[in-house]
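Notebook, bench 3.
Goal today: get a predicted structure for Mandelate racemase/muconate lactonizing enzyme family protein from Paradevosia tibetensis so we can plan the truncation constructs. The sequence was checked against the plasmid map this morning, with no discrepancies at the termini. Length recorded as 368 residues. Pasting the sequence as submitted so the record is complete.
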Amino acid sequence: MAKITRVELLMVDLKPKVKRVDAIQSFVSQETPMVRITDADGAVGVGYSYTIGTGGMSVMKLLELTLAPAIIGRDAYDIEKIWRDLLFLTHATTVGAITAIAMAAIDTALWDLKAKKLGLPLHILAGGAQKEIPLYTTEGGWLHLEQSALVEDALRAKADGFAGAKLKVGRPIHEDVRRIAAVREAVGPGFEIFTDANQAFAVDEAIRRARAYEPLDIGWLEEPLPADDIEGHKRLVEHTSLPIAVGESLYSHLHFREYLERHACSIVQVDVGRIGGITPWLKVAHMAECFNIAVCPHFLMELHVSLCAAVPNARWVEYIPQLDDLTSARMTIRDGKAIPSDAPGLGIAWDFEAIDRLAVEGSRVSIS
């Protein structure tokens, strides 16, 4: 064990490789705060989180002025205690996206450092429950795409060994039904089709649409309502046979507790970059396990592959490649399944020359 001696911060602004449009927004930029933590032994852990285009510099300022100074001199192995202390330190701004995103960057760096010092890959250190996780793709299912493009992408994914694809919904209901039906007819009954509304509907509309989607045999309806409408989700669950998926827009493990206790969801999509790091991600995953609920995390496939392999109730990894410009090797995919890296640490092969080159001007800070 060794004390933390230095924390380095920077942010990279990544542009999506394909146009991404859903029912409420366009994903035009991934601001990626990055944290490098060095301990007295010279060991280095690298962590990160993300936004979808706004708030990145606010995250960086919270890291620079509040969170990073607070961990200098702390024992780098005290991950749980550091996470809880930082949560208390920021109690005036929690629960909130900016705080959770900032904490995630530090927490993932601490897990990376610990795993490297112990010589263990994250998926083993955090549990070691699975060797591979099925993949589904979202990259060809965006709302602006024409029906023919949706069909083409789903067929390509199936040919590549993927077991499912996700389609965005939020067009007029008859158009959504037509688009989903076209994909179902093309791929057949053995391929999962997931749908994602990105919080676009009110409860009455969600119930109506769920009933229209039910004959099309979809795997889940994701974020049908605003994330803070737990009672609405409970009503929807009671009125449909479709699995209801929530979680990408929840920023506290306690919010997941409320959903699970009230039987207001069927799938948990906890996002390590939004929940506050690996420490609370694992809390949510194991809590869901106690309710016999599957974990199918949102985004960040390069990190979620290891976390999913760590727990027994992870069912899917979402394929959206976004770190290619910052890494020297991609996530391993074999027969349509994501394979966690056996390298010590998070399992992400960072290209630090590329990271330094792409860093946002004025975002670099070193604290010691």
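The mean pLDDT is 97. The CA atoms of residues 2 and 40 lie 5 Å apart.
Flagging this for group meeting.
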